[in-house]
């Protein structure tokens, strides 16, 4: 016997079945929003995982191609590793859920979301977000929920609650907001230069909808929710903290962490750790949790310094940005490069331009998005933080950071018609100490301009942090947080934008939500900071996009032909187009609407290819002049190829003004000749004359 619950959200019905499927999970909900169907489950291990000092939460968003009536591409014909969209969706679910589990909980928890059917009017990502929250709330897993999530789009200046996929893709705003019953706990946004005030309005419109959903979830939990199970706490014993403070007094810990050099601070902590290991050598239980205890001691010290004394570890003012520097063209021969440094955070970004045929193909659940022409990739090697470990390819963090910087710059990119290139930006992290994703945004913006990409406006990004006290009005907002302030603080609030508005937001917190004054102050601080970064740093390195792409970048000439002539350019089995490519060394892309892009690095060869295409696609008229090559000689004349796959005949009587007995007396195979078109003969062939070519 199962129970069904339903409510209206954004003009569409959300239906939840509980007890119908997956009964062995700790919590499971079978959800429909329109026809979009998702199974969300929450499961936990019976015992804590040994030897860890973190909460082992895993979130999965499984895209099944049958949900949109498709068979996966490729040879294997089954779903492979998670797509980028799956990874990003899982991260959006993880970020608001994680802070609501007990901090001393070490049992493995998995939140799985299986997409079974997709209705384009109801995005499956939203259903999975709500499903994870509800499944956890009704389970016996300890959880300080519920939380709810709402998405907001904007069409023609009007907000749309939980927009359809088409509205989401085409609108000026892509905002996801998660809330508890009192506060906002997560914000994720991409925006087309939305003013700060409008963004705040949208955030709290979503927050209001979330309150309705939370009331609905509370009703469900009251009826079918399980009693939360007990668990083994992994909290540090109070007596251990007291003993640590005797050995390392608070003043000594303050001195150890109060430095702007990350390496110096780490050496200080290593020395303290060695002393404590020696002191606790005979207490095995304490030694097992010593690392976590030192972390907590540092955290309390840093938070007290910031909150009570308004002192930051590196001595900066609360709204002060670290030392900035920027430069372009640091890497030779690439199409564009720039380096941006903020304190001990340093990003080198390299841009590559290519024909539109190099766009990334996407095999996903969204029928509207099959390819993207701008790709931003982010790499985070271990040396950037002074560690040593092998590279295993991009993880969820790298994918998330790359997507954030990509989202930040999309609104200012030129259209394909204005700039017919596929664009790839790669951010290499040379050094990391806080908010490399925002440094990536700044470096990428400069690198695009250096590559000659005519972006509409400059974009910069910055992150704000937070330390809170015991009451809602006891808090300190920090501009440009470094790693230590991120680790020990309560918030990482990243905002990117132009001088006119916001292009992206990503907010992560470790507490149970933010009040509206904190959200408003953080957004105001980030605007002030990004304008400072643009004026005082980025514009001094490069003020505007270069007028042309660089020497080593491919050049592209675009032209429009009659779509009916595409077959003439391609030729039978691609013979004609392949011959043009072989002769000139260019790359040619043709779209179904007749747009032709000729790409190459040699201007003369590109012009030749364009001329060939023009000849092939132009209806022949009398008196047109062509240059061609003799490809065949007959008794009655010679055949002249004037473009790949295009030929005409010069009758023997039209070769020379003097009478000739044999064609071979004047022409040989391979000769380059100039001819004038006489029209078409009775057989429909093009007739040429050499002797009637007008003199120059």
Automatic annotation (TrEMBL):
Residues noted as binding Mg(2+) in the record, renumbered to the chain: 486, 492
E.C. designation(s): 2.7.7.8
Cofactor: Mg(2+)
One GO MF term attached to the UniProt entry: polyribonucleotide nucleotidyltransferase activity
UniProt cross-references to Gene3D superfamilies, sorted A to Z: GHMP Kinase, N-terminal domain, K Homology domain, type 1, Nucleic acid-binding proteins
Stretches of the chain forming a coiled coil according to its record: 262-289
Species this protein is from: Eubacterium oxidoreducens
Lineage per the UniProt record: Bacteria, Bacillati, Bacillota, Clostridia, Eubacteriales
Catalytic activity, as annotated: RNA(n+1) + phosphate = RNA(n) + a ribonucleoside 5'-diphosphate
Function recorded in the entry: Involved in mRNA degradation. Catalyzes the phosphorolysis of single-stranded polyribonucleotides processively in the 3'- to 5'-direction.
One Pfam family cited in the UniProt record for this chain: RNase_PH
Protein name: Polyribonucleotide nucleotidyltransferase
GO cellular component, one term: cytosol
GO biological process: mRNA catabolic process; RNA processing
Keyword Magnesium: yes
Keywords, sorted A to Z: Coiled coil, Cytoplasm, Magnesium, Metal-binding, Nucleotidyltransferase, RNA-binding, Transferase
Homology family: Belongs to the polyribonucleotide nucleotidyltransferase family.
Positions of the S1 motif domain: 623-691
Enzyme class: transferase
Localization, UniProt: Cytoplasm
């Amino acid at each position: 016997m199962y129970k069904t619950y339903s409510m209206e959200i954004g003009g569409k019905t959300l239906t939840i079945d509980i007890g119908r499927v997956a009964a062995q999970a700790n919590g499971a909900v079978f959800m429909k929003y329109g026809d979009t169907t998702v199974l969300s489950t929450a499961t936990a291990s019976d015992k804590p995982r040994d030897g860890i000092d973190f909460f082992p939460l895993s979130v999965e968003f499984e895209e099944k191609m049958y949900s949109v009536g498709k068979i996966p591409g490729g040879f294997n014909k089954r779903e492979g590793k998670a797509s980028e969209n799956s990874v990003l969706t899982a991260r959006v679910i993880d970020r608001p859920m994680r802070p609501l589990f007990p901090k001393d909980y070490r049992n493995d928890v998995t939140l799985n979301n299986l997409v079974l059917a997709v209705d384009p009017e109801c995005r499956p990502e939203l259903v999975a977000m709500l499903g994870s929250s509800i499944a956890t709330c009704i389970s016996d897993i300890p959880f300080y929920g519920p939380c709810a999530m709402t998405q907001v789009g904007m069409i023609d200046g009007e907000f749309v609650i939980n927009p359809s996929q088409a509205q989401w893709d085409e609108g000026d705003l892509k905002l996801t907001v998660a809330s508890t019953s009192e506060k906002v706990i997560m914000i994720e946004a991409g925006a087309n230069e939305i003013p700060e005030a409008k963004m705040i309005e949208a955030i709290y419109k979503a927050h209001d909808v979330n309150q309705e959903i939370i009331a609905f979830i509370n009703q469900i939990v009251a009826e079918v929710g399980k009693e939360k199970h007990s668990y083994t706490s992994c909290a540090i014993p109070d007596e251990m903290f007291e003993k640590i403070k005797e050995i390392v007094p608070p003043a000594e810990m303050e001195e150890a962490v109060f430095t702007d050099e990350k390496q110096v601070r780490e050496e200080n902590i290593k020395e303290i750790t060695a002393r404590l290991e020696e002191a606790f050598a005979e207490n095995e239980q304490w030694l097992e949790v010593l690392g976590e205890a030192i972390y907590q001691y540092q955290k309390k010290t840093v938070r007290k310094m910031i909150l009570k004394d308004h002192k930051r570890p590196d001595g900066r003012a609360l709204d002060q940005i670290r030392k900035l520097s920027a430069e372009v063209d640091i890497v030779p021969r690439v199409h564009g490069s720039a380096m941006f440094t903020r304190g001990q955070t340093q990003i080198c970004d390299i841009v590559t331009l290519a024909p539109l045929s190099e766009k990334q193909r996407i095999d996903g659940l969204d029928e509207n998005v099959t390819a993207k022409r701008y790709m931003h990739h982010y790499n985070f090697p271990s040396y950037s933080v002074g560690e040593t470990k092998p590279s295993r390819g991009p993880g969820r963090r790298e994918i998330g950071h790359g997507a954030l910087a990509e989202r930040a710059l999309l609104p200012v990119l030129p259209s394909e018609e204005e700039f017919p290139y596929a664009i790839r930006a790669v951010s290499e992290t040379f050094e990391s100490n806080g908010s490399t994703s925002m440094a990536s945004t700044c470096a990428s913006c400069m690198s695009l301009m250096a590559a000659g990409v005519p972006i509409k406006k400059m974009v910069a990004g910055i992150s704000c942090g937070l330390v809170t006290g015991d009451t809602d009005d006891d808090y300190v907002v920090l501009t440009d947080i470094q790693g230590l302030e991120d680790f020990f603080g309560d918030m990482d609030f990243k905002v990117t934008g132009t001088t006119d508005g916001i292009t992206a937001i990503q907010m992560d917190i470790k507490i149970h939500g933010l009040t509206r004054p904190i959200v408003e102050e953080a957004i105001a601080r980030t605007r002030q900071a990004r304008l400072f970064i643009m004026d005082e740093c980025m514009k001094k390195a490069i003020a505007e996009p270069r007028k042309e792409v660089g020497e080593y970048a491919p050049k592209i000439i675009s032209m429009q032909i009659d779509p009916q002539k595409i077959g003439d350019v391609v030729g039978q089995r691609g013979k004609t187009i392949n011959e043009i490519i072989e002769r000139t060394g260019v790359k040619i892309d043709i779209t179904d609407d007749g747009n032709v892009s000729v790409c190459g690095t040699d201007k003369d060869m590109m012009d030749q290819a364009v001329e060939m295409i023009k000849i092939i696609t132009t209806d022949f008229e009398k008196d047109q002049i062509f240059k061609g090559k003799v490809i065949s000689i007959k008794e009655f004349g010679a055949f002249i190829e004037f473009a790949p796959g295009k030929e005409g005949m010069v009758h023997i009587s039209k070769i020379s003004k003097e009478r000739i007995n044999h064609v071979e007396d004047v022409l040989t195979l391979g000769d380059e000749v100039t001819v004038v078109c006489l029209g078409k003969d009775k057989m429909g062939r093009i007739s040429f004359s050499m002797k009637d070519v007008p003199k120059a």
